[in-house]
Specification:
The chain has 8 helices and 12 strands. It is α+β, with helices and mostly antiparallel strands.
């Protein structure tokens, strides 16, 4: 499929009309965003992974090497997820800048099989070229822009529907605890994706206030406690409780569950609850009896 797509795009790119390239719906993928790439490279180095950003070729080689080096290591999940987020979005356009992700100079959606409008556009242009009866479509760039916009809208709709079903499902598990992995961090909390269901919800920083005063360390993609030194970083494994599920807003709220090991390190009383909120230990019967006397 990739070979067919590349071959068709390369073939049409050589066709000229009045010494101008024929308008054609290329599928292009730009180089990584420098604003996102620089902090990502610095973050990868903290785990001992070098990253060369001097040229597009070296960036691609660094990404490939990184994926091999992190396999099976604790930082694998976080670096893979952040690496994907540094990438530009692929779009349709008549301006052929190549496909960075695939490493192709020419690329188009010719075989899918045909199920998208851009595929139809490619087939129409190719057929006209083969028949030697082609006229440049002056609205091709406008059509490419429309296709890119509708593709993003379709992806947003897919994510929204998935989220709706996640919330609908976890409404049956309010108050229950699950293992999860931190999938994102912000100044107002962190997101956790459950291991069992792949359902993502937010642990609000407000729910952590009784345990410690957490600050957002943007360069390290984490929240750090000022007193305890406790951190919540992307990729960390945590235990959460499902506390709310809002179907209308497609929103899940989780609460961090303190593990036994952390409670022991922090000197927490054995009788306290296992959630992140502190509770006051019950007074002993001996103290009660003294007050009665």
């Amino acid at each position: 499929m990739l070979l067919a797509n590349r071959t068709v795009a390369e073939y049409v790119s050589k066709v000229e009309l009045n010494k101008k390239s024929l308008p054609f719906p290329y599928r292009v993928h730009d180089q990584p965003d420098e604003e996102k790439l620089t902090p990502f490279a610095a973050f990868a180095r903290k785990f001992g992974h070098g990253f060369d950003t001097k040229s597009p070729e070296r960036i691609a080689a660094s990404f490939n090497q990184l994926l091999l080096d992190v396999k099976g290591k604790p930082e694998q999940h976080v670096l893979e997820q952040l690496g994907i987020r540094t990438m530009a979005k692929a779009v349709y356009t008549t301006k052929n800048i190549g496909h960075y992700g695939l490493g192709f100079e020419h690329y188009a959606h010719f075989t899918s099989p045909i199920r998208r409008y851009p595929d139809v556009l490619v087939h129409r242009v190719l057929q006209e070229v083969l028949d030697d009866k082609f006229l440049p479509d002056k609205k091709m760039e406008e059509k490419c822009k429309h296709c890119s916009e509708r593709e993003r809208a379709a992806m947003d709709a897919e994510r929204a529907s998935n989220k709706y079903k996640q919330v609908e499902y976890l409404m049956n598990f309010l108050g229950e605890e699950f293992d999860g992995v931190i999938s994102g961090v912000s100044s107002f909390g962190f997101w956790v994706e459950t291991v069992e269901h792949k359902c993502e919800g937010l642990v609000s920083i407000v729910s952590l206030a009784d345990y410690d005063d957490f600050r957002h360390v943007e360069s390290d993609y984490m929240l750090a406690g000022r007193r305890s030194g406790r951190t919540f970083r992307m990729g960390d494994k945590v235990r959460i409780k499902v506390v709310a599920a809002n179907l209308e807003k497609r929103q899940l709220d989780y609460e961090w569950v303190i593990s036994t090991a952390i409670k022991e390190e922090g000197g927490e009383a054995a009788g306290r609850k296992t959630t992140g909120r502190k509770t006051t230990p019950k007074k002993s019967a001996a103290k009660k009896s003294k007050r009665k006397k």
